[in-house]
Amino acid sequence: MTALAVEVEEETAGDPMSDKKWVYRSLRKLSQALQGKGFMASSMTVRRLLQEAGYSLKANRKEKAKGHPERDLQFRYMKRVKHLFQESGHPIISIDMKKKELIGDFKNKGRTWSQKAERVNAHDFRSDAIGIAGPYGIYDLLNNLGYVYVGTSADTSEFAVDAIVWWWKNKERPAFPDESKLLILCDAGGSNGYRTRLWKQQLQQQLADQLGIEVMVCHYPTGASKWNPIEHRLFSYISMNWAGIPLRTFETLLSYIRNTTTNTGLQVQATLSRKIYQKKIKISDKQMKTLNLTRRKICPQWNYIIKPRTTSP
């Protein structure tokens, strides 16, 4: 089938650094091109010949990552800081907002053992939902404990810091040898992003000033959120625990979060918050200047300390 080889050669692209190749045109169009040259070959025949030549259907695969030039430096710095805090007996938490969930008769990804499949809505329209749950998680690295505060309002920096304050004041959480300092590990974006002014202002006001503690924040580099401990030590197990289960009520969602465990002894608490949060709160340059914030010499955009203010702003 020399004609097919010619057609494929003209329509073939590939990676110059490997033997990966692909064709631009579909089986139908390749078949039509061959018929135009006097060769009778159906699309199924073209498929078989392409497979014999080593071709197959492939989807795009996400592998390439544009790393920040200071990415490795930040990882080494965070490792050193975590070790210092642990040796000194200070608390270390990893935080993030899990994917929001529609509450109601909606399909939940995954499968579960049952005699009959659950019947749910054919479409995921928000208008059909009882509400939208925003699980904000706090993972205690040293004690392998998870705390999830499920919000029903907006995912804002105020909600993120409220969740940390609720965790801090939780009488059931284990006490640490020295609670004068707190290390927070978080992603680079979202409500706790390194560029978000309200995030820093709320940390200053609610944690540093009102609780009298020194807060150090270390952000994972952009695109490196999968290394955030909360992702693979808490959120992944919650997702596996409720896989294939329709989250018809908030209580169902809370129940599956609370029942999430691992062989390493993970335990999780879950609390529902119906507090309403305002979106798009602006923090002025003047307000930012009042913060008692010190950036670290290494990767200052991602690492900073907020200390209590001696006087009110």
Key descriptive features of the protein:
313 residues; alpha/beta; 9-stranded mixed beta sheet; two-stranded antiparallel sheet; 9 helices; globular
SSE string, helix = H, strand = E? HEEHHHEEEEHEHEHHEHEE
Average pLDDT reading: 89
| Proportion in β-strands | 15-25%
Q: How many H/I helices?
A: 9
Principal-axis shape: globular
- Structural class label: alpha/beta
The biggest sheet amounts to: 9 strands, mixed
Proportion of residues in helical segments: 25-40%
Any low-confidence stretches, pLDDT <50, length ≥5? none
- N-end to C-end Cα span: 81 Å
* Rg computed from alpha carbons, rounded to a whole number of angstroms: 26 Å
Q: Give the strand tally.
A: 11
Provide an overview of this structure.
With 313 residues, the protein is α/β, with parallel strands linked by helices. The protein contains nine helices and eleven strands. Strands 3, 4, 5, 6, 7, 8, 9, 10 and 11 form a nine-stranded mixed beta sheet that branches. It has a two-stranded antiparallel sheet with strand order 1-2. Strand 5 and strand 6 form a beta hairpin. Helix 2 (27-36) packs across helix 3 and helix 5 packs parallel to helix 6 (197-211). 29% of the residues are buried. The mean pLDDT is 89.
Layout of SSEs?
Layout: H1 2-10, E1 12-14, E2 21-23, H2 27-36, H3 43-52, H4 71-88, E3 92-97, E4 101-103, E5 131-140, E6 145-151, H5 157-169, E7 181-186, H6 197-211, E8 214-219, H7 229-241, H8 250-258, E9 267-273, H9 285-289, E10 293-295, E11 303-306
Parallel strand pairs: 3-7, 6-9, 7-8
Antiparallel strand pairs: 1-2, 3-5, 4-5, 5-6, 8-11, 10-11
